[in-house]
Amino acid sequence: MRFAKTPSSLALILAAVAAVGAVAYWLNRPKAEPQATLPPAPVAARPALTVTSTRAQSSALPIKLSANGNVAAWQEASMGAEISGLRLTEVLVNVGDVVQRGQVLARFATEAVQSDVAQARAAVTEASANAQEASANADRVRALQNTGVFSGQQINQYLTAEQTAKARVESVKAGLAAQLLRLQYAEVRAPDGGVISARLATVGAVVGAGTELFRLIRQGRLEWRAEVSSVELTRLRPGTAVTVLAASGSELKGRVRMVAPTVDPQTRSGLVYVDLPSQRSGAGSFKAGMFARGEFELGSSPALTVPQQAVVVRDGFSYVFRLNADQRVSQLKVQTGRRIGERVELLEGVGAEALLVASGAGFLNDGDLVKVAPGSASNPASALANPDTPATK
Q1: Are residues 193 and 99 both part of a single domain?
Q2: CA 82 distance to own-chain centroid
């Protein structure tokens, strides 16, 4: 029995044939060759910082010894009353005044002394008259000595009277000189030029002999008395140049005058006396009694120095960074010494002419890659071609 084909059955058959064809094409399609995977391009390392370079240089640095001490007067003169019982009528100077040798500083009332001088002059006149009379009598006796008019006893009496009168004249003249000296002592004069450092005189006071009235810094000269340990004391010699700095910032140049021959057994230090330029005007920054510090100049010695910015302090130690041929840096531990201006002495850690990082060293770590800025103090290209041997850390 035959069945008639319906449109829906025909559609199903066509769909099945199309599906089978698609599967056959998928299974029999040509396979594409796999493409080779390329490795990623390497990334170039970037410098951590741009720095400048410098070299360790050999130069002569001064050797200095620091010390502390006090400023004092080179010598002080004490001026007092050389006469007693007189009243001060004038005081002509004050503290800080500059005086000259022989200048009158104060005066006493002289009325009583002048009266004594007048009395002594009268005594001299009287004694001189008596001496002239005695001399005349002695001359007459000598003329008649061999005539027998005068006995031997009388002759001796006249001759003795002559000698006594002459001695009396000398005695009263000495008394007159003493009174004139008292009159001279009524004026207090400066024994030397300098600056008045103390005044104890008061107008109207009646003082005794020996009472201090003024104190004087002789010639206005000051000295610095430095305290130096017994170990360093042997390095100093008279004539050594010294720079003394006051607390105000003023400084003076001086020279060692004397090194103390003894050492204090308690502190084990000795004094070094340094002459300072004259402060006779009294207007200088240095005053007697003030504290000051100074440096003794002991010559010079060779040293290896680098700029101060090339030294980095970390954890209490000092380091520098050496530039290597591969543009990387090596951190080297160093020991520093003297500092002169903007340069620091390196005692150990690097060799001479080592190429080091100058600016930027404080931002680097060991092994960092850096870029050297053009125009540095040293030529990094030639230096890195022949790098220095590694220094001992």
Answers
A1: yes
A2: 42
Locate 84 and state its tokens: 């007693």
**Would the pTM of this model clear 0.70, i.e. be above it?**
no
Residue 316, CA atoms < 13 Å, CB-side half-sphere = 0
Distance of alpha carbon 21 from its chain centroid, rounded?
A: 110
CA distance 220 to 98: 8
Do 219 and 82 form a contact (C-beta atoms < 8 A)?
Answer: no
Mean pLDDT estimate for the chain: 82
Q: Containing domain of residue 241, as a range? A: 66-75+220-300
Q: How many domains does the chain have?
A: 4
Judge whether 358 and 340 are in contact, CB under 8 Å. no
What residues contact 332, with CB distance under 8 A and at least 6 apart? 319, 320, 321, 322, 349, 350, 391, 393
Of 393, 392, 72, 2, residue with least CA distance to 254: 72
pLDDT(176) > 50: yes
**Residue labelled with tokens 């590694």:** 390
